[in-house]
Write a structure and sequence with these properties.
22 strands; 7% helix; elongated; Immunoglobulin-like; five-stranded antiparallel β-sheet
Length: 441
């Protein structure tokens, strides 16, 4: 069945009849009243339309785009478009066209004629066109198609984004505005009943040293400064594009997380911040970072939780995911006391073989000062036999107590001296006798 329906010629809020013809040649008329909101014609508008199979089987010219200039009058308009990072499509330069449209009072298209740009440039990755002056109540529409590098087949539905910049000069004033479009492949089943895309999201979190630290048993060990750089990866794991994305981090114990920031630039958003209201495509991901500080070795293990929330574009389902991170600071090892550094242990003195016995203070065997007694080293050489008598000592030695007797070899020197004196005396007596005899003769 075919009909003469034309969305461009059906103004919003106005009943418009359309005629349809069935496959067997029968015709019938239907009155349709569009209820959509009329777009603001003072700004550029961009939209894309999928081919029949949405690029799943035929990658060439799978999306046809339209970029509408702001309503005239204007003296010149430049439209610049390029393939965003991460997208797998290219421009088909053979399909580029330019149309001047007259807009009626009810915002419908009253007439349209081809127009020639004053300058143009097209490659597989970029498209730029400078258009002539636009009259009052007119717009110029740039049309072109894009092709996939390869058909998507039965893979999960993909989201294709496109962002152009439209620069217009009117009344001597030049203004620039973005014109964005996003197309999501359908995920309807083959039973005649559509199946909404499933929305899901995930978040992984760790530190810059590669520690996942998801549990207290795998807590990361931080330096004594108690600091770490935290890294996050948020991924759209569903088949539905997400929007209203928000990333947060909550500290549950010991420490502070600051400076949380994410990079949404791959999807036409900001390279900083924690929220994104654009389209986060299925299968895509973006990074975030933050700084952990103030983790103390005297408190419990650090614990914080990173969380992402979002809403499915098609399903409208709110989704969320969280990931924990644990860390600790190990206290420095306590000093080890030196060996033998405690009080010395008293030792029992050993008598010197062949000498006298005695007791008294000695040098401790420990590594520092302390009370104790010396262990005497035994005499290993020969020792003279002890004398029969004893020679009493009037007082005790300075290092001993009680009386001490000299025995054996201790009296050899005094006895030798006495013997020498007696011999000297005898010699002197003999000399005296000899002198007297000589005198008598």
């Amino acid at each position: 069945m075919v009909s003469d329906f034309s969305a461009a010629k059906m103004p919003s809020g106005t009943p418009t009849p359309i005629t349809s013809t069935t496959n067997d040649g029968k015709t019938f008329s239907t009155s349709i009243t569009p209820t959509g909101i009329i777009g603001d014609r003072s700004i550029p508008i961009k939209y894309g339309k999928f081919s029949t199979d949405e690029g799943r089987l035929h990658p060439k010219d799978f999306i046809a785009y339209h970029v509408d200039t702001p309503m005239g009058p204007s003296t010149s308009t430049t439209i610049a478009d390029s393939v965003p990072s991460g997208q797998n499509w290219t421009f088909d330069c053979s399909t580029v066209g330019y149309v001047d449209q007259t807009i009626a009072a009810n915002n419908s298209i009253a007439a349209q004629t081809p127009v020639t740009p004053t300058a143009k440039s097209c490659t597989r990755t970029s498209l730029t066109a400078t258009l002539p002056a636009v009259a009052a109540s007119h717009i110029i529409v740039l049309t072109y198609s894009t092709s996939l590098l390869a058909a998507t087949g039965d893979a999960a539905p993909q989201t294709f984004v496109n962002q152009a910049v439209v620069t217009t000069t009117a009344g001597g004033v030049t203004t620039s505005a973005d014109a964005n479009a996003s197309n999501v492949q359908s995920s309807g089943g083959g039973t005649g009943v559509g199946v909404n895309a499933v929305s899901a999201v995930s978040i992984t979190k760790g530190d810059a040293d590669g520690n996942a630290a998801d549990t207290d048993l795998t807590a990361a060990t931080l330096p004594v400064s108690g600091q770490a750089s935290l890294v996050y990866r948020i991924t759209n794991t569903g088949a539905d594009a997400l929007t209203n994305v928000a990333v947060t981090d909550q500290v549950l114990a010991n420490g502070t997380v600051t400076g949380l920031s994410c990079d949404f630039s791959a999807f036409g958003g900001s390279s900083t911040g924690t929220t994104f209201t654009g389209r986060f495509p299925a299968g895509a991901s973006f990074p975030c970072t933050s700084a952990l500080s103030g983790v103390s070795s005297t408190g419990p293990d650090h614990h914080d939780v990173g969380t992402v929330t979002a809403t499915g574009v098609v399903s409208g389902t709110a989704v969320t995911a969280s990931n924990d991170y644990f860390a600790k600071v190990t206290p420095g090892a306590a000093g080890t006391p030196p060996t033998g550094g405690n009080a010395g242990t008293p030792n029992t003195g050993t008598p010197v073989t062949g000498g006298g016995t005695g007791t008294g203070p000695g040098t401790p065997t420990g590594g520092n000062s302390g009370p104790g007694t010396t262990t005497a080293t035994p005499v290993t050489g020969p020792v003279a036999p002890a004398a029969t008598g004893t020679t009493p000592l009037a007082d005790s030695s300075s290092n001993g107590t009680g009386s001490l007797a000299f025995t054996g070899s201790n009296v050899e020197a005094p006895l030798g001296l006495a013997g020498g004196l007696l011999a000297l005396g005898a010699l002197l007596t003999v000399l005296g006798v000899l002198r007297r005899r000589r005198a008598a003769e």
